């Protein structure tokens, strides 16, 4: 490392490095709607098999304002249900993510968005610091 910062904890884990791209939480995505519910067959895909059924699945849509594509993290309400990102797209300055959820009861999970510091919003907080690379990132 010719320049930059490298901070490790006592276990030797890297906490901050100018050589590693890190992501930061930019916020909780806004729940827009459950736009499909109770599906027994997912349109355009194969039918349910007899071993693992996702019948009753639900599709939830979330949004967040971000300058570039964020990484979404799903925090389920019910960990017995399966969850996954089905689609992610940008429209009108917002990023949208569609989450598919199994189960007979619709339980929209919490969804958090993460992005690199250069894509995070500038805060008006009075405390903290920012570390940048030589190229300004």
**Which quaternary structure do these chains form?**
single chain
Mean of residue pLDDT values:
79
Shape: elongated
Structural class based on helices, strands and sheet pairing:
mainly beta
Kindly estimate the percentage of residues that lie in beta strands according to DSSP: 35-45%
Largest sheet: 4 strands, antiparallel
What radius of gyration results from the CA coordinates?
19 Å
Order of helices and strands: EEEEEEEEE
Distance between the termini: 16 Å
Instruction: Count up the helices.
Output: 0
* Strand order of the biggest β-sheet: 4-5-8-7
- Quick one: how many beta strands? 9
- Helical content, roughly? under 10%
Low-confidence stretches: none
General description of the model:
By secondary structure, the protein is mainly beta. 0% of the residues lie in helices and 43% in strands. It has no helices and 9 strands. The chain has strands at residues 6-8, 14-17, 24-28, 30-39, 57-65, 71-75, 83-91, 94-101, 110-115. A 4-stranded antiparallel β-sheet has the order 4-5-8-7, with no helix packed on it. The chain has a 3-stranded antiparallel β-sheet with strand order 3-9-6, with no helix packed on it. It has a two-stranded antiparallel sheet with strand order 1-2. The protein is elongated, with a radius of gyration of 19 Å. It starts with 5 loop residues before the first strand and ends in a 22-residue tail after the last strand.
Short note summarizing the structure:
With 137 residues, the protein is mainly beta. The protein is 0% helix and 43% strand. The protein has a four-stranded antiparallel β-sheet, with no helix packed on it. The chain has a three-stranded antiparallel β-sheet with strand order 3-9-6, with no helix packed on it.
């Amino acid at each position: 490392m010719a320049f930059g910062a490298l901070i490790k904890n006592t276990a030797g884990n890297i906490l901050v490095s100018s050589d590693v791209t890190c992501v930061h939480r930019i916020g909780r995505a806004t729940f827009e709607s459950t736009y499909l519910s109770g599906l027994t067959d997912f349109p355009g895909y194969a039918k349910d098999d007899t071993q693992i059924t996702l019948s009753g699945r639900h599709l939830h849509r979330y949004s967040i304002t971000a300058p570039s594509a964020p990484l979404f993290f799903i925090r389920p309400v019910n960990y017995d249900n399966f969850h996954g990102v089905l689609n992610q797209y940008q429209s009108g300055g917002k990023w949208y993510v569609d989450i598919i959820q199994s189960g007979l009861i619709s339980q929209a999970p919490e969804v958090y968005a993460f992005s690199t510091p250069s894509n995070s919003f500038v805060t008006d907080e009075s405390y903290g610091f920012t570390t940048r690379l030589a190229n300004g990132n």
